[in-house]
Write a structure and sequence with these properties.
The chain has one domain: Peptide Deformylase (Alpha-Beta Complex). Helices cover 29% and strands 24% of the residues. A five-stranded antiparallel sheet has the order 1-2-3-6-7. The longest helix is centred in the last third of the chain and has 23 residues. Bound molecules: nickel (II) ion. The site of nickel (II) ion has 4 residues, from helix 2.
Amino acid sequence: MSVLKLYEYPSPILREKCQKVSVFDDKLRILLDNMLETMYVDKGCGLAAPQVGIAKRIIVVDPNPSDDDLSARQPMHLINPEIIWHSEETVLFKEGCLSLPEQRADVERYERVRVHYIDYDGNEQEILADDILAIILQHEIDHLDGILYIDHLSQLKRSRLLKKLEKYYNEEKHKKVE
Ligand code: NI
């Protein structure tokens, strides 16, 4: 397995509408393995293909990406995932994203969602998700349509967050030069 390069905001790939997967082969499974590995290494609980530079409808998630207890991990690979139902109730949750490092903000999401997808072995599946998994799935599926969680914020909150992100990038660049 290998760790893939992460694309960060404002990379244009993050704004692309991703294509459905139609070929299910070893190449796809290698990509799924590598995406999961990349997610664990970068300590995320979800990762979408555009975040590793691939405009395809693929996400990996794990609501419990523990490093201490590997047996507690709950990895899922979802190909062509689609929200087919959502609850009326919504919740606020403080979200982050590997493509906007070190930033967090409250986002309103549906409390429960039903998602149809194709799994690692090419089988059709459906899952009724609640709690954190429901939030991760909505965040990751948004990525496949070029939507980032900052798009759900007010303009004021978004511009504040992006200013902090720019500051973070500048500090990181500075560190690398030293
Ligand atoms: Ni994200």
